[in-house]
What does this fold into?
Amino acid sequence: MSQTKPYRVSHLDALEAESIFVMREVMAEFERPVLLFSGGKDSIVMLRLAEKAFAPARIPFPVMHVDTGHNFPEVLDYRDHRVAELGLNLVIASVQEAIDSGLVRELPDGTRNRIQTPVLLAAVEKYRFDALFGGARRDEEKARAKERMFSFRDEFGQWDPKNQRPELWALYNGKHHPGESIRVFPLSNWTELDVWHYIAKEQIPLPSIYYAHDREVVERAGMFYAVNEFIVPRDGETVETRRVRYRTVGDASQTAAVLSEADTVEKVIDEVAATRITERGATRGDDKVSEAAMEDRKREGYF
Amino acid sequence: MSQAVLEPESPAARNMDLLRFATAGSVDDGKSTLIGRLLYDTKTIFADQLEAVEAVSAARGDEYTNLALLTDGLRAEREQGITIDVAYRYFATPRRKFIIADTPGHIQYTRNMVTGASTADLALILVDARKGLVEQSRRHAFLTSLLRVPHLVLCVNKMDLVGWDKDVYDKIADEFTSFAAKLDAPDLTVIPISALNGDNIASRSENSPWYEGPSLLHHLEHVHIASDRNLVDVRFPVQYVIRPQSTTVTDYRGYAGQVASGVLKPGDDVLVLPSGMTSKIAAIDTADGPVDEAFPPMSVTVRLADEIDISRGDMLCRPHNAPAVAQDIEAMICWMDETAPLRVGAKYTIKHTTRTARTVVRGLQYKLDVNTLHRDENAPELGLNEIGRVKLRTTVPLLADEYRRNRTTGGFILIDESTNRTVGAGMIIEAS
It folds into this structure.
């Protein structure tokens, strides 16, 4: 069957090499890069890649958390622990502060996904960040399937899908005028399964909510939401304790858990390999609103 | 943290190869159906994606579930039923992970095809068995050879609609093979398929007993790509210099980059360009520790035995095997900008490996008709999606190889200095 292959590079090694290349390009060509860090698994993998790209030096840029105020405590603990461990400079762009100062208004339904975009853009302006690393992957969502590795944004942070720069070979065009910026997606070519394989290979610790645990939940539109300060059971909803884990970690008021027995990384890999529903479809109330929900948010400056 | 150990035969095996391929063709050729079929047969289409596509198809009154909607994600694409841009799709089998660059086939999208082909190991071209080769098939084959995609697959689709007639297939295969030979095209495989019914996609079909080759998926899984890499010519473009400002790591100076070609080993003599200084490789570092050798596409950090002034844009190579250090470049250029044509005398920013310079267009030798391969030597300019042979002069030397020998050190992009748009893709023919 397979012969001895000299100089073999596995798909994970090839993906890692590409992501590291992209991070180094950005560091070499931009003045003020920043890495968006949500405490989710993709941004955790990004942080590991940044660590590896610049070793033995420290990660040479700050990380920014756009904090909706709707957090899982396990994730905030993880964030603070990692930031201290790596000696990073953490910038927090707070949606709550932006509401208090009148920059944005709380939406009637209390969700904060949409209003975090102006908060992000205000922080970019304040700190004059010119390159923003994001952990988005093209396999996540169909609008993202058409994203570039280097995604140009105008001075309003907007994405224009019909006016994207062609990307050839590994020659990324990061040129921009003052006020404009580039969103950079080093994980563009990774899939959810690749991310989990990498987490296993690198033995990267994750916030505990990514693994199966017992939690009080309510079932809402076929999804299981944790009962907490943001999600209060409505009339007719029953609170029950189920064994769940999170496939994605977003705004705690909008991210649902999935029923799962996977309490180790290898069990998660088996589960992800067998699942028939995309991670956003399974867990994100915000992407179900319309056929082009993600495209619309990206046009406004979302990641 | 627990450690995961996976069986190599597990479908979730993490030790796969990576193959990137570009697809070209129009909706009529059944390209979207073929991609949908590949995703479906490898269990990559998820239930919620299929549900969403079914719902949209039903709402639009389509007679069947339109799998093109899986790849056409933008609002304008759905509304107009067209594909605007390169879409990237992913699937995996236990042997390989695949990245598909799905590019629209119309002439105005040469730009996208060139973009998708630039990183592809393999190009997949579709023809409709009822129509045979059309202008577009020849154009796609030409672009594949221009971009030096090492493997080419022609899928003769809709074989069910010609009754699986071997003569129809043979005629198309022969015609394409002789055309491809003229192009100096790479390794070519021709496969009769029906994307709609799944014949010869995931497994050999009983409908084509006369066909003795592999199914498409089998071919994609087994085509030998490891030796497509250039492992002979050592080229290491320096991306970034790592110098920790730390009290624990002192005197560290490493040159970070991705190996473009060749194999680097500690102890090797190196020539540094453009300075012409020589040294030895002291160590090749990664975050996981030093390695005995580095080869493409590894991202590593090289340390040298001597203190030499080296910065981004410089290149490490071997003393007796070096690229040209050249300011005069002849190249084929594909023009990608709709707002202004390429003109003789115009100045652009040129990005080549990790080196960025300015360049002026000294001459346009000819414009090439991608359908007839006719050369128009009187063309005054290159417009959007046009391809021509151009002479450039750069402000600083490029460390360049012929594109046919090295896709990384032979390719470049041109950037408009006022709009910052990427306006051209170049493939070096000669550098001096």
